[in-house]
Amino acid sequence: MRSAKDFFRPLAVGAPTPLTQVPARPSRVIHFFDPSNPKMAAKVPGMVGTVDVLLGNLEDAVKADRKEAARAGLVEIAKATDFGANTQLWTRINALDSPWALDDLTTLVTEIGDKLDVVMVPKVQGAEDIHYVDRLLAQLEAKAGLTRPILVHAILETARGMVNVEEICGASPRMQGLSLGPADLAADRRMKTTRVGGGHPGYLVRTDPVDGDVQGERATAQQDLWHYTIARMVDACAMHGIYPYYGPFGDIQDVVACEDQFRNAFLLGCVGTWSLHPVQIEIAKRVFSPSAEDVAHARRVVAAMGDGTGAVMLDGKMEDDASLKQCLVIVELAERLSQTDPALAELYAVEPAAQEG
Ligand SMILES: CC(C)(COP(=O)(O)OP(=O)(O)OC[C@H]1O[C@@H](n2cnc3c(N)ncnc32)[C@H](O)[C@@H]1OP(=O)(O)O)[C@@H](O)C(=O)NCCC(=O)NCCSC(=O)C[C@H](O)C(=O)O
Ligand SMILES: [Mg+2]
C-alpha cells in the first residue's frame, strides 16, 4: 500500500500528475461499438454529441481473429474524429490474462492517448490488477508525452472482484468508476441464469397460503437479482469518490425491462449505464437524467429550507437537513447536465448564469 504522501505522485518519471478528484463529466450513456465492424465504425462520427461516452470495445463480443483489426480500427477512428467537448472516448481493453491486453494498452496510449479519457478494465479481481495497469499507464503516458492522466474504470464480473470491491475502488487515483458485468459475474458465481443482465421470472417471493391452501391462488412478485451487487458497488464508489454504473442489458428488443433495470440502478445511486445498440441510447439518457418534476420539487425543498437547518412542512411532509441533502443531489445533477445538454437546460429552466457556475 502506498503512503498518503505518495498516493498522488506520478508512477513514472515524466508521467502527468494524478488527479485528486474525478472530473464530474456526464456519463449517463456509455455507448459500445466494435471498431472492427465497418457498419458500426461508420456510425461513430455521427454519434458524437448524441452520447456522453463512445467506447471502442476490444474485449468480449469482438471475435478472437478480429482483435488486431478492432485495435487498429479504434486508432483510426480516434485519429479521424473530433469528439468535441461533450463526448468522451473510452475503450474496453482485453482482460489482463489475455494475450492482447499488453498490446491494447501499449498501442492505444502511444497512438491515441491524447484522445482517450478512460480505459475500462474487464474482470478486475483485486487491487493488484489496478496497480499493474496504473504503473503501465504511467510509463506509457511518459513515453507518449501526455499531459493529463488517463483514468481507469473497472468492471466487476467475478466473485473475487466483488469481495475486493472496496480495495479496487481505492487502489489508484486513476480510478474513475465501476460497472457491473452481470453476465460474467453470474457465470463466475455459478448463478443459474443464461441472460446478459436483467431479471429472471424464477427469482420471486410468494404470499403466504390462505387457510393452509398451498395450491391456491397466491400472488408472486419477481425480485431484483442485482440489488445486493449494485448496492455494494454504490457504497464502495461513494466511499472512494468515484462513480458506479449499471452495465449491459442484453435483451435489445425488451426496451421496457431495459428501462426498468436502468431506473433501478439510477435510483440506487448509479450515474449511468452501457448501451449496446442505438435503441438503448435514448432510454439511458432519459433514465439517468432526473425528471423535470423531481428537479422542481427538489428546488422547492431547497428554497423552503433556507439556511439548511431545522425542519419545515412542505405539502404535508417533513423536510430537514437530510432530505435537503438528497434534493441537492438532484439539483446539482440537473445543473451539471444542463451545461452540456441544451434540451435539459430548457426542461429544467436553468438560467444561463447558473449554467456557467
Ligand atoms: C447486438 C448487436 C449484435 C445487434 O446488431 P445488429 O444485428 O446489426 O442489429 P440491428 O440490425 O438492429 O442494427 C441496426 C443498425 O444499427 C447498427 N448498430 C447496431 N449496434 C450498434 C452499435 N452498438 N453502435 C453503432 N451502430 C450499431 C447496425 O450496424 C445497423 O446498421 P445499418 O445496417 O447500417 O442500419 C449489436 O448491436 C452489437 O454488437 N452491439 C454491441 C455488443 C457489445 O458491445 N457487447 C459487449 C458488451 S456486453 C458484455 O460484454 C457482457 C459483460 O461484459 C458482462 O459480463 O456482463
Ligand atoms: Mg463480461
Automatic annotation (TrEMBL):
Any one GO molecular function term: magnesium ion binding
Pfam families: HpcH_HpaI (PF03328)
Top-level taxon in the UniProt lineage: Bacteria
Keyword list, A-Z: Lyase, Magnesium, Metal-binding
Cofactor requirements of the protein: Mg(2+)
Entry binding sites for Mg(2+): 157, 184
Binding site for substrate: 92, 157
GO terms (BP aspect): oxaloacetate metabolic process
Alphabetical list of InterPro entries matching this protein: Aldolase/citrate-lyase_domain, Citrate_lyase_beta/mcl1/mcl2, Pyrv/PenolPyrv_kinase-like_dom, Pyrv_kinase-like_dom_sf
Stretches assigned to the HpcH/HpaI aldolase/citrate lyase domain: 29-195
Name of the protein in its database record: Citrate lyase subunit beta
Species this protein is from: Terrabacter aerolatus
Taxonomic lineage from the root: Bacteria, Bacillati, Actinomycetota, Actinomycetes, Micrococcales
